[in-house]
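INFO  loader      accepted 1 record
INFO  loader      residues=340
INFO  predictor   begin
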Amino acid sequence: MNDFALTLLEWFRENGRDLPWRQTRDPYAIWLSEIILQQTQVKQGWDYWKRFMHRWPTVEALAAATEDEVLREWQGLGYYSRARNLHYAAKQIVALGHFPDTLDEIRKLKGVGDYTAAAIGSIAFGLPAAVVDGNVYRVLARHFGIDTPINTTEGKKTFTALAQSLLPSDNCQLSIFNYQLPQVAAYNQAIMDFGAIQCTPSSPNCPNCPLQESCSAFRSGRVSDLPVKQKTLKVRERHLIYIYIRYNGQTAIHRRGPGDIWQGLYEPWLVDTVPAGAVLIKQNVKHVLTHRILLADFYLLEVSEKPSLPPDYIWIPEADLDSYAVPRLIEKFLQDFRPI
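INFO  predictor   done
INFO  writer      dumping tokens
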């Protein structure tokens, strides 16, 4: 085994995170954790994983749920396409008759890319596939002094090849946290944890790093400069106007369709112009997406007769709002503005 991998595994035994999905080889539980942790920190995703596993302990149970149920359970995690893909992939697995156990088959699951396939394959089945995520990019870029931008085609090829070359070839079982893991699974989890705990984006713990002597960035004083990321699209602002209608203990909502943000989630009446009689409740409620900043104004319109709305709006009791999955922006408004 190369010195880099050996050092990481020794560090992992002492400092790794003992997470519940690491205490099983159940591919369903591992897959679920990987989908939840896409764009989500462990401390936030942990509770969601436990709730999903409690409500739907098997992939068959998840596949039998409705999309609305899955979206409602997912509410607050954001990037809701992950939840829709998760539900679709559960049905793919059930149709297949077993959880796919090769990289090619795992990649065919909706919402699964190269990183997720490598994580599931190595951890659940011991497949020799190196993971490459943000943590891995950072560790490799700093340790080996690579300044190729990580979000370019060349960068992705460079780091993927390097990560695979460092993967231990002897796939024996290692005892980590008092349970057995394939060596490739332990290594993949070690380098991810190392990036999350030790070699962090800001203020990395260089003084106590076991890789300090061999780290190119530390020796050259470039820790804060690596990894390099090419500038991407400019963030745009979008302004939204929502009308919360109150009629005899009811309110109107509609489900967002495909082709825009928040597909499948519910929202109040979205308008271009504020109708007469509407009272401003909250202004410039801010929500930041990857390439967009949303600013929303929320109005209350109390009426004695139902207004004419587009046909896709439905009327529900205000007390039932919690049964419908809404975007985080709407949730932030409702947390402060509770129905009577």
